[in-house]
Each structure stands twice: as structure tokens, then as C-alpha cells.
Amino acid sequence: MEYGSISREIHIEATPEVVYQVISRPEHLREWWPDEAELETPVPGGTGAVSFGSGPEAKVEPLTVVEADPPRRFAFRWVCEDGETAGPGNSLLVTFDLVPAGNGTLLRFSEAGFREKGWEAAVLEEAYQDHVRGWDYFLPRLVGYAAKVATR
Fold it and tell me: Measuring CA to CA, how many Å separate 64 from each of 101, 107, 110?
């Protein structure tokens, strides 16, 4: 099995402008993805963090914005070792490409960099499968939430 990247294409009943806000603003992110989200500004070089769970058990992942091209593309790096600055080879790259499709948006999602992390095979497989399960859960939530925001 190949553990290099995760890719999904999904249709969202909302314009690219609405979807872009939903994937790049902390007040929207926390409605469909993490339990908590902080992002100073969604511009290249902007930093923040997402948290899953609460209290001392919470898993906090810093993130760094790599690309912000509203309403076409939003990309960030995350999942790097504590104290490191996320970059190629030490983190995962999440990219959301937004393409107008009728009255909605075709979202092309990818998460890459698993092999480049240098994890041993068992750790790589476990991390990859964990992220597949996570995105398979969260991306449908994104679809529903963005459609709801679009009707406001």
C-alpha cells in the first residue's frame, strides 16, 4: 500500500468564497474540524494551532499557512516535532483547491508528506490510516457546514 498522500474530491453546495472562509477562518474551522482553532491571519507565514480534545488530554498541533489565494487555494503545514518550524520533510502539507462548479464548489483536498517524515514503517502506516479516518470523518462535516453557512 502507498502511504504518500491522501486525496479527495468533493462537491459543496456553496460558492468558493464561502468555502474559502470555512477552511481558513478559526471561527469556522472549529465548527467542522478541531475542537479549538487559533490562526492569527490566514496569510502565508501566518501561524496558529488546532486542538483535538480538551484539558490536559488535548492534542494540540501547531500549523503554518503556506498559501492563501482566496477563493482558490488555502494550504498549511502541520504535524511537526515540538520546537521545529514546519517545512518540507518534517511536516504534512494540507491543500484545499477550490474550483467553481455550477452553483457550488469542487473541493480538491490533499494531505502529503507522510513518507518524507522519515517514520519507521509501522508508525507511517498508523499515522496515515489515522489521518485517512480523520479526513473521512471531517470532510463530510465541512460539506454540511459550508452549505449551512451559504444559506445564511
Answer: 29, 21, 16
Closest by Cα among 84, 63, 79, 83 to 127: 79
- How much of the chain is in helix, strand and coil states, percent to nearest 5? 35, 35, 30
Give the pTM. 0.95
pLDDT tens per residue across all 152 residues of the chain: 678 899 999 999 999 999 999 999 999 999 999 999 999 888 999 999 999 998 888 999 999 999 999 999 999 999 998 888 889 989 999 999 999 999 999 999 999 999 999 899 999 999 999 999 999 999 999 999 999 999 98
Question: Which amino acid is present at 107?
Answer: L
DSSP 3-state of 41: coil
Can you read off the three cell numbers belonging to residue 35? 475542537
- 14 neighbors 152 (Cβ within 8 angstroms): no
User: Which CA distances in Å does 22 have to 8, 69, 84, 150?
Assistant: 17, 14, 28, 10
DSSP assignment string, 86-117:
P-TTTSEEEEEEEEEETTEEEEEEEEE-TGGG
